[in-house]
Amino acid sequence: MNIVVLCGGISTERDVSITSGTMVAKALRERGHKVVLLDSFFGCTEAYEKPEDLFAREIRQETIPVGEKEPDIEKIKALRNQDNESSLGNNVLEICRAADITFFALHGDEGENGKLQAAFDVAGIKYTGSGYLGSALAMNKSLSKKLFECSGILTPAGITVYAGEAPYADVGFPCVVKPCSGGSSVGTSIVKSREEYDSALELSFKYERAVIVEQYIKGRELTVGVMDGKAMPVIEIIPKEGFYNYKNKYQAGLTTELCPAPISDEITDRVQRLSEKVNSVLMIDAYCRVDYLMNDKGEIFCLEANTLPGMTPTSLIPQMAQAQGKSFGELCDEIIIVSMKKYR
Ligand SMILES: Nc1ncnc2c1ncn2[C@@H]1O[C@H](COP(=O)(O)OP(=O)(O)OP(=O)(O)O)[C@@H](O)[C@H]1O
Ligand SMILES: [Mg+2]
């Protein structure tokens, strides 16, 4: 197939996405596909006559390792020389239209929140992952939590606080303060006292006007992939220090991931069925990864679902696939095959 792998963009997860995209492009090439790796924000800077010609040239992108902190997006934006404000770079849609499918290796914000999915639908361009509605519902933690609550899916008690409104949400301490539509734990704090609360809120508001303040759940962290409606193996995540923050997510060796998670068959089954339910309640197509915390009473709280989960060397879905005997390349092909089902 001719495939565009779209990565980068201007979300706080830009660097993570470039790493995902680079790995996906390499794996798809090794499996015989013709791949153009494109940065969705910068577009294509190569000259070409017909976009089809690019697939023979296999345009690449420079890899950048994921740093300990998220990139400064204002600096990235200043680097682009384009005479319009579009968050898509020049020629991106045209090149994607020339492909058989676009593999979305984008994470966070535009890319994962449904806007790009809707734009591609309107333009008649095929892409991997969920459609616009599931993407939007899963991206917005405030909406997801409401849907969890009315579907009997346990989620930490919490409320959404908006910039400019009464900022103090009394959910008790410790609590967690996080941007409503963030990812990779950017802007997320665990708050132990009233003194820490205001600065945590200020940090989250740097990223978004809506912020989730929720009950802190002390317990074990689990995550489960769902592929084509069926749960993948469960992973337990154990950061060596602190919580599963940006640094612990992407610096190799800072977190232990156990797959399959050392939990009973009964709990494995419960969390897998729960993940399939989350996938359907949020109207997610193709694949996703659902994040949980389990307390010492065995209660399982759903935090969120990710519709374009990471595909980096430390990412979780590739580890689940490996436990099922699938290589990274086979996983990429599987994502393409199940994503095509939404076009039937
Ligand atoms: N209510 C909570 N109680 C305890 N820890 C929490 C809670 N909410 C979030 N966390 C911690 O913060 C991390 C990030 O939270 P969450 O998964 O909700 O957001 P995210 O930034 O969208 O994550 P992702 O990178 O998976 O997109 C979790 O993996 C967990 O370690
Ligand atoms: Mg998460």
Structure description:
The chain is an alpha+beta fold and 344 residues long. The protein folds into 3 domains: 2-127, Rossmann fold, CATH 3.40.50.20; 157-215, Dna Ligase, domain 1; 218-325, ATP-grasp fold, B domain (D-amino Acid Aminotransferase, Chain A, domain 1). It has 13 helices and 12 strands. It has helices at 14-30, 53-57, 73-78, 92-97, 109-112, 115-123, 132-139, 141-150, 194-205, 246-250, 265-281, 316-323, 328-340; strands spanning 2-7, 34-39, 101-104, 158-162, 175-179, 189-191, 210-215, 220-227, 230-239, 255-258, 287-294, 300-306. Strands 10-9-8-11-12 form a 5-stranded antiparallel β-sheet. A 4-stranded antiparallel β-sheet has the order 4-7-5-6, covered by helices on one side. α1 (14-30) crosses α13 (328-340) and α6 runs antiparallel to α7 (132-139). It is globular, with a radius of gyration of 20 Å. The two termini are 18 Å apart. 47% of the residues are buried. The mean pLDDT is 95. Adenosine-5'-triphosphate binds next to β5, β7, β11 and β12.
